[in-house]
Design goal:
single chain; mainly alpha
Length: 435
Amino acid sequence: MQQEKYLKQGALTLCASVIIGFLADYTFNLSLSRTLSAHEYGDYKVAYAYATICGVLVLLGGDRVAPKFLANPLAKKASSEVGGFVIFFCKIAACISVLLFLFAYLSGYLHLGSWSPDEHHALLWISAAIPLIAAGAILSRVLQSAKLLTYANLPWRIVLPLGKTLAILVLASLLNQVRLWQVIVAGIAILALITTWQLFILYRKNLITLTHTVPIRNQSQLLTTSIPMMLAMLVTIAISQLDLYMLELLALEHEVGHYAGAVTTSHMIPVAQVSVIALFVPLLGQALEKGEEHAERVLWQGQKVMFIIILVLTVGLLISGAHLLQLFGRDFFTAHDALKYLILGSCFWAMTAFISTWLQYTGKGKYVVVIGLLTLVTDAVLNWLLIPTHGITGAAIATCIALCVASLLTWSTFMLCRKPPYSNATIRSAQSGHR
């Protein structure tokens, strides 16, 4: 009964997250693309992709393993254990973030020969956001594990893009020309506000304490579980962002911005995918404690919801994609063919994403990492071959093929590793054997 209530409330949050969140993010990207040049907009998307990847890297999978590790502490209201978990991974994130910032700064100096931040790529400015992204990710996972999906998802899916849109409008009204670093700094300020608010919610609900914490005992064992999850997530993100980096190298500068518009339009499918998984992962973590057979019910329930939502979104985007793309500007219509392939690739992978999560939660994360690396290599090779001759459409075809390969390999791995279900006949035969 309690699970049904949670799923009903979660479904409403899911709808708001996917629909309103997509509109908010789309509005932000539209306002940004019209405020900046196509070249600057492409630079922002590259920098944003870098920050997203680094935000996952610095946590070493702490956000991924949170629903599994925190199931019991949250059920017991052991706020000191939750605090110990959060502090452990935030310290790791802070140390690695400093190294990444220094790396970005020194790389910029070697390339430009200047220490002035104004002359560096947007990567340097957005590096300052990496610790906040990591802290926000771990706090959101704690809220998600506590089944507080509204507090976990909506601030990042809706409030963040709306806040950044408002910041762009304010900057545009106050300044003659909006600079890219000003947009990034405004975004960092909003990140800080949301992260602080989520920490306040956790404190108010007595789910966390950062003063008298219980240190994690088996730190090496926890990292052994979390790092493969981080690698799997990192490879998945890298696949989705690799095209932008390859286009930076092999295509014209303005084409990166056009391709970014197509990526933003197709992004509704990954948003829905992540939202559905976020709805079912807390249930999956609890169910796995009772055994894989019991947890498979949650898996197939989630797969059914995923299939219906992704199918509807795919058809809708294929029909309306051209109109959505032209909202960025008439010249963005050149990315229409690329958009079709991106939608299809995202659809194939979304149908598989929960299966990938299942493999990670059942101790088979190494297979997911291997599949991800093979997919990444496939995508890189195809990009290298197709972008020079087919431009942004070639990049989208490469991603579509790579994601289809990943989907096929993941399903094959799941079927091979899956434990055979126990039938009534098998149980009776085992009982008679004991007699």
